[in-house]
Amino acid sequence: MPTRTVLYVEDDAVNAMLMQGIVELRPGCELHVARTGAEAREFVAGRPVDLLLCDLRLPDVAGDALLAELRAAGLSPAVPALLVTAESEELTAQLARDGGFDGYWTKPLDVAATLASLEHWLVGR
Question: What are the residue boundaries of the Response regulatory domain, all occurrences included (predicted)?
């Protein structure tokens, strides 16, 4: 089974560490963290990504607007993208739809539910 690459755009170190711990529970999957929109654009321009996870509040760009920029930088339209935020579920759902995301996860993340969803987006599609 090939290694699946997950790009998580997240500027908070604690959230990035939590996601790293969750992704490590899924064999054949590696997480790369971009702390800014600029780092994410650079990453997708140079490497294939299997799943994009994007925080809403980033230091240099609004996360809900970043997806279009990443698609323009080379992220395939076939790559699923999820908005990950601590905002209310109602607001997050709206922002995800408006930003062209395939779905969303709300923080705090439930480890078991996040793993199941990760599996869905990486394999079950």
Answer: 5-122
